[in-house]
Write a sequence for this structure.
């Protein structure tokens, strides 16, 4: 028998970096340390659909990278008046679910599994210039061919691309989640990332790439979506936890891409 | 197509009536950039804020205006088209230099080091200077206007004539499937790869809510329970996207259509051109669409 609290203690012990108690992200979002664990599901978003599938598979501890109640702070006060919140919380209570988010410490850990997993899923691993650089040198291709390849590898239905499809690219910088590397780096042709606001950031990639194209500067930006970019690394997270939690099954259960796109 | 208020329509008619006089006067006294800005501030019906991203981002207030272009974002392509059309004042909803601060140099590198000169920033700034362009950002204050011009613009572009005049963010349409609605939005807003949808493609949609621009979870929490589908510009994926996804899981018969922040404000900036025309009769005022930035591989 193992409790959720014991799982978290083992995660902290094996992490390799100090645990920061100041984190508001990496905490229990439902259930608590005393919940007896029947199995562990890692995932990117603690979506309701994911909770139902994990529970049906006998996995009652969920370790998501992102939020449960639709905000970064999982601010229950903001959503507690919404019937959907009550339905989701009631379901988790009935099924004896525990949810513990791992975000800040996953990015602090070395290697950062989000990057490792995404590079693996996109078939980029062998092209990385140095471990942990998140920079890749590909055989020269076009932005159009690269984007098609990335769409196929990731299975993303609603991936978005900015730039000239015929632009020659080979130097790629990888970003995950809401952390897009600067597109204006002179040593980078193309950035692949998760999510970024379109304007009023510190370097708005879509607008920059549009202008670069008009000026004849070869730049490209492939935006996967937040879930697609950070879900693969939750496989590495599951494998890692499995190494020190042998008592129960541990596996990735994908929340998946939320979007579709019309033809 | 523009859905100007009755008051604005009256102003337009009045302006047309006095146009010959004004035009005669304009030969003697040129219309300056500052004149246009002053008239915009006066006509907005919104008090000008001390802290704002709005304002003159390039060009001289005293420069004579040869023509005005409105756009969602003043890309290089839009600027080139403005110059070709003989216009030197561009009114943009979004930043010109890729950040909230609109600084004409890239942000400092990691550790605060001086950034290397950036070819895109430099070339765009040089183009603006060489062509004596003035760029005025109108975003915060445009958004504060009621009823929402951005929502009015989308409703007009969609042909939703039954949009409420008092609250254009709420529209009732004849029942349509979500996939047909998404296809129609894509066509009428001239989208390419920027359109993304959450929800059952077969869902019947009648009540539509509009959230142009960039909106937080609170906006979706408030609106989605009262409508079948929201058409939004940009939201955070860990907020309204996940909320909509959970609503769909709970068979709440809801949908969210994202068109992109830039694309969502383009129809509103088209209305902006019609609006500016009503109080700036001296020069040509036209809208130039920046277009959907995104494409998607086949």
């Amino acid at each position: 028998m193992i409790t959720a609290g014991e799982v978290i203690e083992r995660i902290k012990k094996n992490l390799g970096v100090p645990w920061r108690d100041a984190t508001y992200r990496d905490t229990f979002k439902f259930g608590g340390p005393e919940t007896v664990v029947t199995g562990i599901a890692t995932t990117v978003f603690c979506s309701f659909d994911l909770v139902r599938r994990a529970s049906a598979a006998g996995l009652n501890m969920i370790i998501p990278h992102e939020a449960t109640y639709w905000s970064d702070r999982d601010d229950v006060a903001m959503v507690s008046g919404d019937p959907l919140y009550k339905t989701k919380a009631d379901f988790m209570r009935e099924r004896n679910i525990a949810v513990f988010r791992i975000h800040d410490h996953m990015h602090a850990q070395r290697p950062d599994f989000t990057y490792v997993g995404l590079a693996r899923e996109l078939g980029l691993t062998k092209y990385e210039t140095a471990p942990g650089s998140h920079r890749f040198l590909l055989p020269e291709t076009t932005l159009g061919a690269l984007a098609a390849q990335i769409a196929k590898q990731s299975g993303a239905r609603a991936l978005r691309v900015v730039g000239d499809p015929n632009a020659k690219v080979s130097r790629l910088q990888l970003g995950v989640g809401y952390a897009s590397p600067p597109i204006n780096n002179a040593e980078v042709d193309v950035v692949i990332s998760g999510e970024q606001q379109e304007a009023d950031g510190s370097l708005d990639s879509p607008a920059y790439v549009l202008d670069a194209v008009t000026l004849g500067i070869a730049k490209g930006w492939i935006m996967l979506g937040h879930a697609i970019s950070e879900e693969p690394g939750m496989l590495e997270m599951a494998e890692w936890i499995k190494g020190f939690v042998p008592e129960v099954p541990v596996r990735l259960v994908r929340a998946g891409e939320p979007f579709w796109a019309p033809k | 197509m523009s859905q100007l208020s009755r008051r604005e329509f009256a102003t337009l008619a009045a302006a047309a009536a006095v146009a010959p006089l004004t035009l005669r006067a304009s030969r003697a006294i040129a219309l300056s950039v500052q004149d246009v800005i002053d008239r915009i501030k006066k006509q907005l019906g919104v008090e000008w804020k001390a802290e704002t991203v709005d304002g003159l981002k390039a060009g001289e207030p005293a420069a004579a205006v040869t023509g005005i272009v409105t756009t969602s974002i003043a890309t290089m392509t839009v600027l080139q088209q403005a110059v070709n059309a003989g216009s030197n004042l561009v009114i943009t909803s979004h930043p010109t230099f890729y950040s909230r601060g609109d600084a004409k140099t890239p942000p400092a590198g990691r550790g605060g080091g001086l950034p290397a000169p950036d070819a895109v920033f430099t070339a765009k700034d040089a183009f603006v200077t060489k062509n004596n362009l003035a760029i005025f950002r109108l975003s915060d204050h445009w958004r504060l206007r009621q009823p929402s011009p951005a929502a009015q613009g989308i409703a007009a572009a969609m042909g939703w004539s039954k949009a409420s005049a008092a609250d254009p963010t709420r529209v009732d349409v004849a029942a349509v499937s979500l996939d047909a609605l998404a296809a129609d939005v894509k066509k009428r807003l001239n989208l390419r790869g920027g359109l993304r949808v959450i929800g059952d493609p077969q869902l019947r949609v009648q009540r539509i809510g509009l959230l142009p621009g960039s909106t937080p979870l609170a906006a979706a929490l408030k609106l989605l329970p009262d409508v079948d589908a929201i058409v939004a510009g940009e939201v955070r994926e860990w907020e309204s996207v996940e909320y909509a996804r959970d609503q769909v899981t709970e068979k709440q018969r809801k949908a969210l259509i994202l068109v992109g922040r830039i694309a969502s404000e383009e129809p509103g900036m088209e209305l902006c051109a019609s609006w500016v025309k009503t109080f700036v009769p001296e020069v040509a005022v036209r809208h130039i669409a920046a277009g959907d930035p995104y494409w998607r591989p086949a």
User: Anything to note?
Assistant: Chain A has a mean pLDDT of 97.
